[in-house]
Amino acid sequence: MAASPALLLLLSLGLCCTSAQGQRDAEVVWFVPRNMKNPQEGQRLEMECSPKNSDSGASWIRQDKDGKLHFIVYISVLSRTTYSGNENTSPNFEASQKGNSYRLVVKNFRAQDQGTYFCIANINQVLHFSSGQSAFFPVTTEAPTTPAATTQSHQVTKKDTSHQSLHPGTSSENTLTIGCDIVIWINLAGACLLLLTAITITIMHCQRPSSP
């Protein structure tokens, strides 16, 4: 998009007309209401500035994350507005003037509207730039869940569950087998003990001397 003539004029004047007076009469931009910290997506965002002794209206510009300046609107002292592209209206913005206050409204705040907003006033043929008002979505600190890790964990859990469901009687069968083995070994040990006792008695009986 070609740069707006109004924006080029403002930037040219800003570079050529710096003075100590402009630094003394620094302006401030604030949200309406003032206690708002960060705008939410889709909300109606209002900002206002009150330049001192402005004799030719005020302009609003936005600086995006990459540092590029975007002209939004010029508001005359008679509340006449000129938007980017030399348009009288804008689908995204509203602007108005009341007394010494100049208000900018973002009708539907979106991601592309994020940035730092400045109010510029021409006072005694000197441009005065306001302090910037940052307008960004709130920063979330919640750590995002990794889809791959979640899927892998789900697959492992599902696999373990299905494996257990396919062999529900494995543990009972193992316990029964161990019990049978113990009974068999006890019986074998008892039989061996009886056999050993019988052999011992037989040997002792055979070694006993016979009577004359």
TrEMBL record:
Residues 144-171 are annotated as: Disordered. SUPFAM superfamilies: Immunoglobulin. It is a single-pass type I membrane protein. GO terms for biological process: adaptive immune response. Residues 5-130 form the Ig-like domain. Residues 1-22 form the signal peptide. This is RHACD8-4L.
